[in-house]
């Protein structure tokens, strides 16, 4: 049936009009009604025209793709409420995602809502890795944190490290890199305003400012920032674990291995978590993995980049509140599963079966037969 | 995480304490808290003891399975509300299923609710099949309708046939079989009461009584009943398409092929649909399949029985209101997917990976590598 797809603010191509949600919904045989994000009306229009042209060229029915645009909530609400809509995808704020999710539940017929909403993507530096590579890890972390002016689902926002050898080098590398970063244009004035508010919240929740980037020159420029807090304070103040959408990060200094584990257990659902470790860190890592496996969709070892290669193994999802449905991914080959449901054909004459299921397998597809 | 599983009233084994929901949740590594159905406290207790014994014998943690019991809604509500519960399964009435579903949506953290609620499992007799096999089809339909005193998810409740050759034979065979059927004990006094109310609703919605079975001798005996209605009336009165849980059926007499298609399009989501057809019926069947594929989880050709063999191809689900989530089945090998979510491991040293993912595949499992 028809799917309502909400384009994201931050990736005008990959998560927008012609993005993975649209592609996987169309591939599943669904009709797409796309709500364009107001942050990039021009890019949206160009993509929509290209898709409409492709629909025409390939002889598909004209209504298979359409795009709607406009500010405010009225359009989105009308889409989610419409009885013909069979599923909703959304990428954006927790507030926005939960509003759509709750609204969809008011329908007489419930439908799935796949909202990708919030994640601080915690990074853990294990003691041996900190001792050996504190500075390069801090440097690489901030580099990744600044990508897209910090406006990415997978931005690493929180770094957890045990106080000890290498900690000063880590902190110094991070401070240096943050303070050298130029202020850069953020996506919209609204997102810029929310970022400033997020920075204020950090301070009032008890984190201390370690470094700031160059002064902003334009009104919507995002100035990067690094905060620091002790593990004990972090555990006591849930506000510190909330996402700040923009070029800021929080360094959490924990007392010992036990506090590191406590901090790991304190996180809500995340899209990803990253570990920096050496061979000697394996025993502690084995204790750290179970809480992380329960709380994240992806765990990365000894890397900074989060390339979202679209393959069978890609997982871009995670436990609530990272997403509203952790069993599915919005990126990767299996994202199509959000829009499929099984139909069983029993006792059918071969001529009535859909071609992929016929005895001779006329389309030559790889098939699962008796579970093999 | 822990799953709340609600046992069904009608299958004290397959859908109850040790049923498929419990088995697939345990297989997925989840803890099960089972709410036993009040219809069979004894059978529930025997099964629970056997499971607890098995848990002990196999050295699993003691809390991996527990059972709660009691009438009223308080226990069920407490289970669905509990923040540790990660999913809910339910088999029963639409009212009960939707109450749990709506309640789960009030939680701060949304969780999936798999409720299998209602289905009239329509049967369509195509003209040539009716002309050739009207009587045996009617006979076989009623035989199946009476199984378990009509208290089955897959009970065929509505039969649609075009007026013409074979219709009188079909109607006669059904009447004869229904009137010969003895009244048999229903599951609970409550279900019996709801059945009687359902029969009254049929009549007041405009269906006429064609035949009734033998008089009931005990208070909770279900007396079988056959109703009939013209296609036009059926299309005008949605109440006639509602499930009556018990040994009754409705014969819908349609004017022509077009009205047969209209009736097919009028149905809400169903667990199954059945077609009786001959070679000459293929052209009409091809027109009938698309609306049925959209509305059902399973389509059966030229059969009466609905064996629920537990295999990879089993689908026991269907579009709302048959279930709250048509992408999943509650019976079959894939029912485990309701309780699984993906976790991606990126850049891991082999020693840290779970055994099934290690380089040498030490457990020797069949695996999907690069989509192959």
From TrEMBL, chains A, B:
Source domain of life: Bacteria
Aldehyde dehydrogenase domain ranges (all copies): 1-277
Keywords from the UniProt entry: Oxidoreductase
GO MF, one annotated term: oxidoreductase activity, acting on the aldehyde or oxo group of donors, NAD or NADP as acceptor
Pfam families tied to this protein: Aldedh
UniProt-listed InterPro entries: Ald_DH/histidinol_DH, Ald_DH_C, Ald_DH_N, Aldehyde_DH_dom, Aldehyde_DH_Superfamily
Protein name per the record: Aldehyde dehydrogenase (NADP(+))
The organism's taxonomic lineage, starting at the top: Bacteria, Pseudomonadati, Pseudomonadota, Gammaproteobacteria, Pseudomonadales
């Amino acid at each position: 049936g028809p799917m309502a797809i909400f384009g994201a603010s931050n990736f005008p191509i990959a998560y927008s009009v012609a993005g993975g949600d649209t592609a996987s919904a169309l591939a599943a045989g669904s009709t797409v009604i796309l709500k364009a994000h107001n942050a990039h009306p021009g890019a949206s229009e160009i993509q929509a025209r290209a898709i409409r042209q492709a629909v025409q060229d390939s002889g598909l029915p004209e209504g298979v793709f359409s795009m709607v645009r406009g500010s405010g909530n009225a359009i989105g609400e009308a889409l989610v409420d419409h009885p013909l809509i069979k599923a909703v995808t959304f990428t954006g704020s927790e507030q926005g995602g939960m509003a759509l999710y709750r609204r969809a539940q008011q329908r007489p017929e419930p439908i799935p809502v796949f909202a990708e909403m919030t994640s601080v993507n915690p990074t853990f530096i294990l003691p041996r890795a900190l001792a050996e590579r504190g500075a390069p890890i801090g440097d690489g972390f901030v580099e990744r944190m600044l990508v897209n002016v910090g406006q990415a689902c997978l931005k690493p926002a929180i770094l957890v490290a045990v106080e000890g050898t290498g900690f000063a080098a880590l902190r110094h590398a991070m401070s240096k890199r943050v303070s050298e970063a130029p202020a850069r244009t953020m996506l919209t004035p609204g997102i810029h305003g929310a970022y400033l508010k997020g920075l204020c919240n950090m301070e009032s929740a008890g984190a201390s400012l370690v470094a700031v980037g160059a002064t902003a020159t334009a009104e919507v420029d995002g100035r990067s920032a690094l905060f620091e807090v002790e593990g004990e304070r972090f555990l006591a103040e849930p506000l510190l674990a909330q996402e700040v959408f923009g070029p800021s990060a929080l360094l959490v200094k924990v007392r010992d291995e036990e506090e590191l584990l406590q901090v790991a257990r304190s996180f809500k659902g995340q899209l990803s978590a990253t570990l920096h470790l050496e061979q000697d860190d394996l025993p502690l890592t084995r204790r750290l993995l179970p809480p992380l496996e329960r709380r994240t969709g992806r765990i990365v070892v000894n890397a900074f980049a989060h390339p979202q290669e679209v393959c069978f193994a890609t997982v871009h999802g995670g436990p609530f509140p990272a997403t509203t449905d952790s069993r599915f991914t919005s990126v990767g080959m299996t994202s199509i599963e959000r829009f499929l449901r099984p139909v069983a054909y029993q006792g059918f004459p071969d001529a009535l079966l859909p071609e992929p299921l016929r005895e001779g397998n006329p389309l030559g597809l790889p098939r699962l037969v008796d579970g093999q």
